[in-house]
Write a structure and sequence with these properties.
The protein contains five helices and eleven strands. The chain is an alpha+beta fold. It has two domains: about 130 residues, Impact, N-terminal domain (Ribosomal Protein S5, domain 2), CATH 3.30.230; about 60 residues, ACT domain (Alpha-Beta Plaits, 2-Layer Sandwich). Belongs to the IMPACT family. InterPro entries: Impact (IPR023582), Impact_N (IPR001498), Impact_N_sf (IPR036956), Ribosomal_Su5_D2-typ_SF (IPR020568).
Amino acid sequence: MEENQDFYKTIDTATEEVLFKDKNSKFFGYAYPVTTEEQIKDLLEDIKKQHYNARHWCYAWQIGAETVQYRANDDGEPNNSAGMPIYGQIQSFEVTNVLIIVVRYFGGVKLGVPGLINAYRTTAQMALENASIVERTIDCTYKVNFEYKDIHHVMRIIKEKNLHIISQKMEITCEIIFSIRKSEAPACEQAFTPFYEITLKKLS
């Protein structure tokens, strides 16, 4: 991701199954939006139950926008012939928070490493071409604490800066948690600066 870029691309919903065939081998491809490794584990288990007769369940995933984690798994295929070609398509489409699984049913004819690379890459490409790719903003989250008497200052800033309220607690002392697009965060912090009795804390 480019420096200072405050958005990322991901897929909106899970894709329909795609199928690629080569020399009687069948490759079924799936793409899912994910944000945690727990989700990834559950989806892999679901696919293995669905395709319990398959020979290989290869996959690659990437999560995170600024700090990225990824993994590629060949699941018994020759080294780097499955997981990395799948991951290469995630990179090619410049998406994150995504899991791609390619399930292989062996057709009796060996494809060789170049054939496998092509099959896994093509199936992953088909799955992503089938996906609805969307842009999401990278947001910062803040907590603002203030006395009730200062509520008009806070609400004015929230309205002017179009802040997204996540939660609020309005008592004698008040607390609002809100988010704002990363590129707009410095101006937001500046808006609260003149009010010494209002405390602003960045959460993420």
